[in-house]
Amino acid sequence: MLLRAPAVVSPATDASSPWKQQQHSGFKKGISADKCGVGLTATYMKSKSGIKRSVHTIRAVGGEGRTTSALTGVVFEPFAEVQNELVQVSRSFTQSLARQKFTDDCEGALNAQINVEYNVSYIYHALFAYFDRDNVALPGFAKYFKDASDEERGHAEKLMKYQNIRGGKVKLQSILMPAVMEFDNAEKGDALYAMELTLSLEKLTNQKLLNLHAVEAIKKVSEYVAQLRRIGKGHAVWHFDQALLNGV
Question: Can you give the pLDDT at residue 87?
């Protein structure tokens, strides 16, 4: 499609001109179609002074045998490669419509990690219950493990949300009972033993899913283990417990 200004046609110099003139407010106006019969061109001529002035419109001109669209029109033609995707969407009744470039291996790995997070959360919840007993009475440790349990559960829920976003299916698996519900240790004491168990669990989680949060958690728990080893099993454990309780 080309844009051009039609040539000026004057009825005074071209006897064969098809223009028709109208008198309007001291101006003569001629209107005519071009050779292709597409669009209009208007010419205005001032007649009193004898000076001819013309104004031309610029419009789209189509070639012979072709149709023209408005200059502001938008013609949409679907890309050829979209057709394959459209066929897949039309056939998807049991599968997620959002799934794209998401393999079965990725889906399975996410479900496995969800199970890891829930199992770790379950053990932390057991530790919370142990330290919350009246004959153990370490509320700081109880609070720490309750928060840790909630955090691991939150990780599982975020992974479940991501699984759904990618078009996968969440498949929950069995949660194993903790081998023991008594965390007292004659040699190390319950506080140090529980923190060493926690450190092992964080490292296990890190092996399954490496991310910044897991690395930070390992560093934090490692410091707790080192501090508990230094203070021993005596009265200092109570002060450590208070520090956990008060978020120091």
Answer: 63
Using DSSP, state whether 3 is helix, strand or coil.
Answer: strand
- What are 40-71's pLDDT values in tens digits? 444 444 555 555 554 444 444 444 444 445 55
Using CA atoms, how far residue 57 sits from 7, 30, 54, 70, in Å, is 11, 13, 10, 14
Question: Cβ of 202: how many Cβ atoms within 10 Å?
Answer: 22
pLDDT at position 208 is 81
Only one residue has tokens 């454990």, namely 237
CA distances from 240 to 127, 161, 232, 243 (A): 17, 37, 11, 5
pLDDT band for 88, please (50, 70, 90 cuts).
Answer: low
CB 190 within 8 A of CB 130: yes
In this structure, are residues 59 and 75 in contact, taking their beta carbons and an 8 Å threshold? no
Main-chain phi, psi angles of 122, to 5 degrees? -65, -40
Measuring CA to CA, how many Å separate 221 from each of 77, 150, 201, 233? 60, 17, 10, 18
Distance (Å) of CA 198 to CA 78, 128, 145, 177: 56, 12, 9, 16
Residues in CB range of 17: below 8 A, 6 or more apart: 9, 10, 11, 30, 32
How many secondary structure helices (H) and strands (E) does the chain include? 6, 5
State the average pLDDT over residues 98-122: 86
Mind listing the pLDDT tens digit for each residue in 188-209?
Answer: 999 999 999 999 999 888 888 7
